[in-house]
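To illustrate the input format used throughout this study, we show a single complete record. The first block contains the structure-token representation of the backbone; no residue identities are included at this stage. The design step must infer an amino acid for every position from geometry alone.
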């Protein structure tokens, strides 16, 4: 008799058949434990605290822009203050006729302007005809040289050429010499402000303070021409070149600046040690013009 061999029931019950394999979705999944609300709150607080300490690109850029604006504002305020000091010094300058007091020199200039109809043709002939372009430039150099000397002391720079204000002054001087001196001569006619047109055609912005400095500069040039003319006609001196001794170091300022004077107040504030002369005088050597 053949006996059949079968697996014990206990074993076959624990071995699933090939067709009894169930998909993963139907199998039992053990859920993960979710963090409590207190844990989530703590994590968020830590994350936000960390984020606050991270530098933001936009905030850094804004801070740099603000610092740059403040620096420029401070520089602008300092420049305005020094320009105001320059204007004060320019207003304090006087053209002094040799051998006359300050008051007498001012009265001489006022007399010419009060009797302008009498002097106009004579001054025009002297400036526009008798003086060539070289001598015209030397007349204005009387003012220019003095300004170039005082500016570095006010602005505390080695050379006036470094200053934008001096470069503006140079443009004004060149305009006054324009068309063989017609620029300066036009200042005696009409409103006398035709030279200001050089700024309207330039992209460079000129501040009101800088413009006032230029206006005073033009006034000094006008007075300088009148005093040189008056002195030349009174002394009957020949119109010749300026002597080489004009640059002699024994004078306070170089070259033709002997024409100008400055008040003791300027000397106390800006003069360097050892410079004790309080006035810069127009000397008789200008009779050669």
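Output of the design step:
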């Amino acid at each position: 008799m053949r006996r059949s061999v079968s697996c014990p029931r206990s074993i076959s019950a624990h071995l699933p058949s090939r067709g009894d394999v169930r998909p993963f979705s139907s199998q039992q999944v053990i859920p993960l434990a979710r963090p409590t609300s207190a844990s989530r709150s703590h994590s968020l607080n830590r994350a936000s605290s960390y984020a606050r300490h991270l530098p933001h690109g936009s905030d850094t850029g804004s801070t740099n822009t603000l610092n740059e604006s403040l620096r420029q504002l401070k520089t602008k305020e300092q420049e305005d203050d020094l320009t105001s000091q320059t204007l004060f010094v320019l207003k304090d300058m006087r053209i002094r006729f040799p051998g006359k007091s300050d008051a007498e020199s001012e009265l001489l200039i006022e007399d010419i302007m009060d009797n302008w109809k009498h002097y106009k043709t004579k001054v025009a002939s002297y400036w526009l005809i008798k003086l060539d372009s070289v001598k015209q430039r030397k007349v204005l150099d009387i003012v220019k040289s003095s300004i170039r000397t005082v500016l570095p002391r006010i602005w505390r720079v080695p050379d006036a050429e470094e200053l934008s204000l001096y470069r503006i002054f140079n443009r004004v001087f060149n305009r006054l010499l324009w068309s063989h001196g017609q620029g300066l001569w036009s200042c005696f006619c009409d409103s006398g402000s035709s030279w200001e047109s050089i700024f309207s055609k330039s992209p460079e912005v000129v501040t009101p303070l800088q413009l006032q400095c230029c206006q005073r500069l033009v006034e000094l040039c006008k007075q300088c021409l009148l005093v040189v003319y008056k002195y030349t006609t009174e002394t009957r001196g020949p119109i010749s070149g300026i002597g080489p001794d004009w640059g002699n170091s024994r004078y306070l300022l170089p070259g033709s600046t002997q024409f100008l004077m400055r008040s003791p107040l300027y000397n106390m504030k800006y003069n360097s040690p050892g410079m004790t002369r309080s006035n810069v005088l127009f000397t008789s050597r200008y009779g050669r013009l």
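Structural context for interpreting the output: The chain has one domain: 73-95+104-288. Residues 57-92 form the longest helix (36 residues).
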